Amino acid sequence: xxxxxxxxxxxxxxxxxxxxxxxxxxxxxxxxxxxxxxxxxxxxxxxxxxxxxxxxxxxxxxxxxxxxxxxxxxxxxxxxxxxxxxxxxxxxxxxxxxxxxxxxxxxxxxxxxxxxxxxxxxxxxxxxxxxxxxxxxxxxxxxxxxxxxxxxxxxxxxxxxxxxxxxxxxxxxxxxxxxxxxxxxxxxxxxxxxxxxxxxxxxxxxxxxxxxxxxxxxxxxxxxxxxxxxxxxxxxxxxxxxxxxxxxxxxxxxxxxxxxxxxxxxxxxxxxxxxxxxxxxxxxxxxxxxxxxxxxxxxxxxxxxxxx
Length: 308
Hints:
The structure is a single chain. By secondary structure, this protein is of the alpha/beta class. The chain folds into two domains: 2-136 and 287-304, Rossmann fold; 139-285, 3-Layer(aba) Sandwich (Rossmann fold), CATH 3.40.50. 40% of the residues lie in helices and 15% in strands. The chain has a six-stranded parallel sheet. Helix 8 links the parallel strand 9 (197-199) and strand 10. Helix 8 packs across helix 11. The longest helix has 18 residues, at 27-44. The radius of gyration is 21 Å and the shape is elongated.
């Protein structure tokens, strides 16, 4: 009986954010699947139409948003069956390159950054639509206690250390708060209110070429400034070339240490407040309401492609 009702729920015009079961609690699945589906529910005001579910249901005439690991895990036979059942597939590959042999199954490819969107427009076949939906911020930030904030510059790095430029001298100036993207925990979230400068200097890696500016969005929500290099194009798109705390030119330990000292000395100044004003603008543009509007546009775009 439960299976019968489950099949009814997945029939005709419902929207499903699909995850691969082994990767259910990975960060990209939680943020790009579970949390995004909750934003979509609010934006569409139809919570009974939008679901977050695994790929083993009997979908028919549905809109399916495939998260990163669902795209990578589903085989050709499974993808072909989903298409034959008149589902429309949205690929949300997040920060990885979509395997070329799977692209033919996508009706729409969702980009989480402007750079990725432009690359998709250039490289993907014209038959595949591309829609930009900026990366959402973790809604659990709303539950934190923001009543006590540091009264001096306090810098922290939130993320995997393999992704950042770090030396022992820098680690003395910047607290390192590891973020586990495989297992969900809220330890790092509870640390966020203690910091008003988010260290985001990136190490160049080819593993994930389509990075969004999530660290900037998170810092913006926290009412913090951010330190990042000016070679990060997606960051410049949001911050602008005149943002006061951009590391200019080649990344070196010496320049980072000097910049950290500079930021420390400018704390509370007009320059510091100008940086925060820019961050407040980013917070507004990446709010749940703003992301919700982009999702509505996405599903409208999918609807133009045919009946679902």
